[in-house]
Amino acid sequence: MQSLKYLFTVISILIIALMASPALCGHGAKGGPPKAIIHGGDTVNISGLVLDSHKEPIDEAEIVISVNGKEIDRVITAHNGKYVSRFQLKKGEIQTSTIGVEATKASFASQSLEFKGAELAQKGDHFFISEDLSLPRVLGPAFWISTIIFILAYVLIAFELLHRTVAAMLGGVLMLVISYTIGTINPEYHIFSFDSAINSVDMNVVFLLMGMMIIVGVLKHTGLFQWCAYVSYKLAKGKVFLLAVYLMIFTAVASAFLDNVTTMLLLTGVAIEIAISLSINPLHLLIPLVLASNVGGTATLIGDPPNIMIGSYAGLTFMDFVIALALVCVVCMVALIVFTKLVWGKQYASAKVENVQEYIKVLKEQYPITDPRLLTYGLAVLGFVVFLFLSHGYWHMEVSVAALMGAAILLTIAIITEKVNLIELIEKDIEWPTLMFFIFLFIMVGAVESSGLLALVADWILDLSAGNFLMACGLILWVAAIMSAFVDNIPFTATMLPIVAYLGSVIPGSENTLWWALALGACFGGNGTIIGASANVVTMGIAESRGYRISFIGFMKTAFPFMIITILIAHAWLLIFRPQ
Fold first, then answer.
1. CA-CA distance, 237 to 461, in Å (whole number)?
2. Cβ neighbours for 192, distance < 8 A, ≥ 6 positions apart
């Protein structure tokens, strides 16, 4: 296990270093063989964009420039779909020449155009023209291979046949290997390049998670989260349902500002101990808490990984999420409290509550604040980070910068004061497998986006919705919810991002509402089954290790109806208020 952690650490550092390398990350028009310099000749500049049927840029398309049927230049489109060709002809030759431009790329039909040299604009001995090309998609070998690999990786992740990080790594690397082996022999099998793979990784998401993991890892050494559980019990004064309500509210609020997986990691053990002391099944307390964590995490940009991905992709700020989603999450929390009372009310009522004051004293001794000074520093830094989250739109700063800044400050304080062991924190508190999973997941999604799968799904949803906002909003919300209930909502959200962006651009009046439909569907849908969200898997895994196991169907019987209730609330909310 220790060697596995070191392996993940080393691989992560290598990938981040590779991303920082200009030689690897640089995109642009790559020229062919050196062009002959003709002294006193005419210089020709041909440029333009290569776009797909959705008017989205196509990178790494090969452009062949010919003059009178003879190839004279070969360039590659940049990340924004732009190509630039510059070459020379003999003086006066351009006026009588026919120039051809042909664009090719795997999974696209080749397109070409011709024009006379006399059509070019002229300034002295320089000639200019800009010509755009539109390439229609084709379902070629690259499309089918990438789609099959992607689906197989999904199956491995969803049914836990292989660790999700290894499954994503296997899928992403296999696509690259096929691209550079079979794809070199036959370009139709080339899925995408290494440059495209690196550029498809959203480092804003990766660094945000890393920063928050470090901050929470330091705060964990202060005993803060266990102390909060003790305070909840003290406020409830032995009333078990009231205790569950307090814990759900605390979990929801904590999950809104911290990663909900981390929140449940810290609270699950304490909740189990409290449930055992009350002689109730810990699952009757843990299931409401994990449902609350997924609802609370929906309210902010940083509360749930799908929101982080949506915010980073769509350029939405922390306050955009709060304004659009916080109130509907409050409504869903009220629904959860009522639901909890109806489902587990009898179990709570049968709990044995004896010597409440005595047990409060025991909890106070067991769960004190262990390091008040470090806690003071930690809360101050966390407050500063949250301030930057709230105002990052004004500073035009990515949220990952705020998280990493807070992590660096707090880590520096903790190390200088010798409160935290750096090596221990890096090994245990930074979830390297999770970060690696994100990296390779982004690579896999980038591959199927490049080969055309996402465009196909987008066209299907657009055709089904007939360009109607109400239909598109409902489809995105419910498809996201049902899919996220049965597969991890992280890869599903990554798949849907370009689709929702396209639909938002072609459906009048949708603006940001479709993004909120995706966020609500992906986050609330994660409550449907035990594998729907990472927080579910983590919480139930800890419970099982303590001897309290619940089956897939057992969890679904309770959680799925609540998921349906919250999606109905969200659907009504989106249709009535249309948050922008």
1. 52
2. 60, 175, 176, 179, 200, 446, 447, 450, 451
C-alpha to C-alpha distance for 492 and 519, rounded to whole angstroms: 11
Structure tokens at 441: 């997941």
pLDDT-derived band at 269 (thresholds 50, 70, 90) equals confident
List the chain domain ranges: 42-134, 204-345+356-461+468-577
Write phi, then psi, for 111 (nearest 5 degrees).
-135, 150
Tally Cβ neighbours within 10 Å of residue 181. Answer: 11
Q: How many CB atoms lie within 10 A of CB 185?
A: 9
Q: Are 473 and 511 in contact (CB under 8 A)?
A: no
pLDDT, tens digit (0-9, with 9 covering 90-100), for 255-267:
998 768 778 877 8
Report pLDDT digits (tens) over 333-348.
999 999 999 999 998 9
The answer to whether the CB of 567 falls within 8 A of the CB of 520 is yes
Neighbours of 491 (CB within 10 A): 26
Cα distance between residue 69 and residue 182, in whole Å: 30
Length of the chain: 580
Per-residue pLDDT reduced to its tens digit, 508-538: 777 789 999 999 999 999 999 887 887 888 8
Contact in structure between 245 and 337 (CB atoms under 8 Å): yes
Determine the Cα–Cα distance for residues 188 and 141; give it in Å rounded to an integer: 6
Interatomic CA distance for residues 219 and 377, integer angstroms: 9
Q: 42-134 has which fold?
A: Protocatechuate 3,4-Dioxygenase, subunit A (2.60.130)
Measure the CA–CA gap between 580 and 567, rounded to whole angstroms: 19
Residue 454, CA distances (Å) to 179, 346, 437, 483 in order: 19, 48, 20, 15
Terminal CA-to-CA distance of the chain, rounded, Å? 46
